[in-house]
Design goal:
This protein is an alpha+beta fold. It has helices spanning 2-24, 70-78, 116-132, 146-154, 163-169, 182-194, 253-270, 279-284, 298-305; strands at residues 28-29, 35-36, 49-51, 62-65, 84-91, 103-112, 140-145, 202-210, 219-220, 230-238, 241-248, 291-297. Strands 1, 5, 6, 7, 8, 9, 10, 11 and 12 form a 9-stranded mixed β-sheet that branches. A 3-stranded antiparallel β-sheet has the order 2-4-3, with no helix packed on it. The longest helix is centred in the first third of the chain and has 23 residues, at 2-24.
């Protein structure tokens, strides 16, 4: 119990530091709704839904707990609010285990006029300062593009490799292939083969992801003949733990709607719940300024700072004891 209490105190210190970090940079803290009339269409994320019992004029009775404050923050950006961040609770159904809890704390922020590379540098700076709270510093900082990382480890181009090559690269790791598509195998290689090789206290940033894994990021056209388009996206890891996911944000509502529809088509094939598309976000996107945004998992960061593989060690009470 003393270890868990120590981590709660470290969490409080980290929150204080985060707020000072952004105040010094003139980034505004905001709070956005936790309940929404729209859900997250991402096929790999499950949303919690609940029923509102109040007046009909308040809108749809079914509401969704947010999986991220992203959509609401983008609506504020489109209104002209400027650089902003939110530090708060988010919810994802079905995620409970050593590294996951159905409710957790996310830090998400947006910088107007920045691209993903500049935002990546600020994310690294925040993580380095957080490490200093426990008297540590990164053993190394490496930025590597997605294709180079996979070529080094597996000897193939992840943009063009077929599914059989991806499955074979997992080696002796047994995975049930039912319902898995090419992008799932790429993700499994990252989580099962690559992340475990990242050295403790090393910061690794992986950028230029496949365009098929763009989510809400812009896609950059091929730089040369025969080269693939890539998503202007980065992920940051501290040791083997994924901490942050950042984008040069897409502001094309037509393209974003098509991506949401593709998500729902995949969910339909899998027999999964079909959350409603966030029409308020799509209506706001034409006004979204050129910007970059990133989400950083606070609980994962605390796990790294506390050198623990168990998320329960950094929470007051994990899901099983909530």
């Amino acid at each position: 119990m003393s270890t868990r209490h120590a981590m709660l105190r470290l969490r409080a210190r980290l929150y204080t530091h985060i707020r000072a970090f952004f105040e010094a940079r003139d980034v505004l803290e905001v709070e956005t709704p936790i309940l929404s009339r729209a859900g997250n269409t991402d096929p790999n994320i499950a949303s919690f839904a609940l029923e509102f019992s109040g007046p009909q004029q308040a809108g749809p009775r079914q509401r969704w707990l947010r999986t991220s404050p992203e959509f609401a923050l983008k609506r504020l950006l489109a209104e002209g609010l400027g650089d902003c961040y939110e530090l708060g609770r988010v919810f994802r159904n079905g995620e409970a285990g050593g590294r996951h809890n159905p409710e957790f704390t996310l830090l998400e922020w947006y910088r107007v006029g920045w691209d993903q590379h500049r935002l990546c540098e600020e994310t690294i700076a925040l993580v380095v300062e957080a490490m200093a709270l426990v008297g540590r510093a990164p053993s190394s900082v490496r930025k590597v593009d997605f294709a180079t990382l996979y070529r080094e480890a597996f000897g193939f181009d992840p943009h063009t490799a077929d599914v059989e090559s991806l499955r074979a690269a997992l080696g002796a790791i047994a995975i049930d292939p039912a319902g898995l598509e090419r992008e799932d195998w790429l993700d499994l290689l990252m989580t099962h083969r690559l992340q475990p090789t990242f050295a403790p206290d090393a910061i690794t940033v992986v950028h230029d992801w496949p365009a098929t894994q763009c989510a809400l990021a812009r896609v950059r056209p091929a730089a040369a003949a025969g080269a693939p388009p890539v998503a202007e996206r980065f992920e940051l890891y501290l040791g083997p733990l994924e901490l942050a996911n950042g984008y040069h944000e897409l502001n094309d509502a037509t393209e974003q709607r098509q991506r949401f529809e593709r998500d729902l088509a995949l969910r339909r094939r899998r027999g999964e719940v079909l959350p409603p598309i966030d029409e308020a976000l799509l209506a706001a996107l034409p006004g979204l300024p050129d910007c970059a945004g990133v989400a950083l998992g606070i609980d994962r960061l605390l796990m790294a700072l506390g050198s623990t593989p168990r998320i329960a060690e950094v929470l007051a009470f994990e899901f099983a004891r909530a």
